[in-house]
Design brief:
By secondary structure, the protein is an all-alpha fold. It is built from five helices and no strands.
């Protein structure tokens, strides 16, 4: 059965792989990974670390600072449920703004919560 973090991880990893294969649109895959993993402290932190690295490689100083802030927030606040569900996690959006969840991602999240991969 497993827990949510274990169940959602393959989907987050798939988005990481897609981001690596598609540098032009890769950040969109990181945003999808964020929506998928943000209910798990471990996955939420992993996604923000990848986003920080993405911005670092692109020399986006604003993005790096934004992700450092979000990385700390993910590490400290996720476990108490203080996440804006659906938020895509980029530095270009408010860190506290909830957003609608794509139905495809919502179905994956529900599946992971119900104990299957």
């Amino acid at each position: 059965m497993g827990n949510f973090a274990d169940n959602i991880r393959p989907y987050v990893d798939a988005e990481f792989a897609a981001a690596a294969r598609d540098p032009e649109h890769g950040f969109g895959h990181l945003e999808r990974a964020h929506v998928l993993g943000q209910a798990s402290t471990r996955e939420h932190v992993r996604v923000h670390w990848r986003m920080l690295c993405w911005d670092w490689h692109r020399r986006d100083v604003r993005g790096v600072y934004g992700q450092a802030f979000r990385l700390a927030g993910a590490a400290l606040l996720t476990f108490i449920g203080m996440v804006p569900h659906g938020n895509t996690g980029g530095s270009n959006v408010s860190a506290v703004r909830p957003m609608p969840i794509d139905p495809e991602l919502a179905a994956i999240i529900d599946k992971a919560r119900n104990g299957s991969r």
